[in-house]
Each structure stands twice: as C-alpha cells, then as structure tokens.
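Q: What structure does this chain adopt?
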Amino acid sequence: MSITQVPSFTKVPDRGSSPATFSGDVDTFLSEINARTEAGNQQADEVNALAAQVETQAADVQEARAAIDAGVNADRWAAGDYSDGQSAWSPINGLTYRAKGDFTSMIDPSADPDNWHNLNPIEEAGKLISARARRFATWIGA
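A:
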C-alpha cells in the first residue's frame, strides 16, 4: 500500500523579495495550505490503518508463538485432568496436541480428536488431502 505524499509548497514567501513578488508568493502559499492539510490528514488516516493492521498481525504472531511454546514445552500425556489450551505430547506417536476444553482425559490425544486439537499441521494437511482425494475419486466414479 502506498502512502499519500504531502505536496511541497510551490512558493514560499521571502521577505527579501520585492513587494509584488512577495504578495504573489503569499497568495500562492496560502492557496496551497488546504491541499497540504487534506493530504496530511489522508496520510495520517492511512498510517493509522496500517498501524491497526500491524497490531492485529502482532496479536496473531503472539498467539502463534504461545501455541508453539505450549507445544514445545508440552508434557508427556497421561490420563488425568486437562485445562483448555493445555498441551501434551502423545506417547503413541510423539505428536503434540492442545486440549479443546476442560476435561478428564482417559484416551491418548492421538485417538481423541473430540477433546484434543492436533498441533501438527503437516499431518493435518495430509489427512485433509487424503479426504479430498477420496471425495474426488468418488465424484469422478473411480
């Protein structure tokens, strides 16, 4: 996104110039103030909009970082009580999962997708691609 540029004054009055030149330069200078003000306000609006985007992106990055930290620092899963957002790694497959809510876990996270969110995007993408491939094969009658 480009940012509106505030135009420069084309004439800046100089007290050392002749009265006629000075008067004309003042008129030009004064006539350009409104355009510069409007451009400055437009530029401020654009910068504020970009700042809001940066804030949103920073919050997304912080959320992703927290998820990564939770996954990296996850404890080995064991049957017991888990809180929403708590992570554990499965001793069955070694992958990390995050609790979807507060519950008592009696099933390994790898076998309990109702209560655990898989934090392994590559595995999830593979499952999604496989499911779509099966649907496509059914659609074309293979």
